[in-house]
Amino acid sequence: MREHIRSEARGVVATCLGYRTRRLARAVTRLYNDRLRPLGLNLTEMNLLAAIAAQESAQPARLGRAMALEKSTLSRNSGRLVERGWVEVHDHPDGRGVRLALTEQGSQMLLRAIPAWEQAQRQARSLVAEALVGLGKEAAVTG
Q1: What values do phi and psi take at 100, rounded to 5?
Q2: Which residue, among 94, 85, 60, 62, has the nearest Cα to 74 in the 3D structure?
Q3: 49 in Cβ contact with 105 (< 8 Å)
Q4: Looking at residue 2, what is its pLDDT?
Q5: Mean pLDDT in the chain?
Q6: Where on the phi/psi map is residue 40: left (φ > 0), alpha (ψ -120 to 50), or beta?
Q7: Which residue ranges make up each domain of the chain?
Q8: In 10 A of CB 99, how many CB atoms?
C-alpha cells in the first residue's frame, strides 16, 4: 500500500501542471529580481513603474486589477515607490480617489532599469521555452 501511494505521489509531482508552473513562475521571478536588484528594484516594482508610465497616470484600483495584485501588495509596493521619490500621488481630477504618476526620478529609474529587464526577459524566454519543450516531451511519452 505504501509503495503504491509513493508511486502515485511521484507521478503527481512529476506531471502536475500546477506544481510545475508554480516552480517555473518562481524561477522566472527570481531571474528578473536578480537582474533588477542592483538598481534597488524588484519585478513587481518594475512592472508598477512601467504600468504607471504606460498610462501616464493610473488609479491604484485599476492598476491592481490589471496586474492581478492584491490590494495590500499594491499598497506596499506603490508605497515603497512613493518613499523613494519615484511615484507621486495626486487627487483624481473628478474627485474620485487618487492617481499615481511617475516623477522625473521615477522616469529616469525606469529608463535605467530597462536594459536589466531586457536581459532578464531573454533569459526568462529561454527558461519558459525549455519548460514547454519538456512538457511536450512528457505528453508524447505519456500520451
Answers
A1: -105, 140
A2: 60
A3: no
A4: 85
A5: 89
A6: left
A7: 2-142
A8: 20
Residue 99, SS3 per DSSP: strand
* Listed residue (33, 32, 40, 48) closest to 118, CA to CA: 32
Instruction: Write out the three cell numbers for 116.
Output: 536589466
Q: What is the pLDDT of residue 141?
A: 45
Cell representation of residue 71 = 490590494
Provide the grid cell at 106: 521615477
Of 47-61, 85-99, 122-136, give the range with the top mean pLDDT.
47-61
- In this prediction, residue 58 carries a pLDDT of 87
Look up the CATH architecture of domain 2-142.
Answer: Orthogonal Bundle (1.10)
Looking only at the bridges linking them, the beta strands covering 87-91 and 98-102 are antiparallel
Question: Which residues, other chains included, contact 49 with Cβ-Cβ below 8 Å and sequence gap of 6+?
Answer: 41, 81, 86, 87, 102, 106, 109, 110, 113
State pTM to two decimals. 0.81
Q: Does residue 35 contact residue 120 with C-beta atoms inside 8 Å?
A: yes
* Three-class SS state of 101: strand
Given a cut of 50, whether residue 127 has pLDDT beyond it is yes
pLDDT at 70 over 60: yes
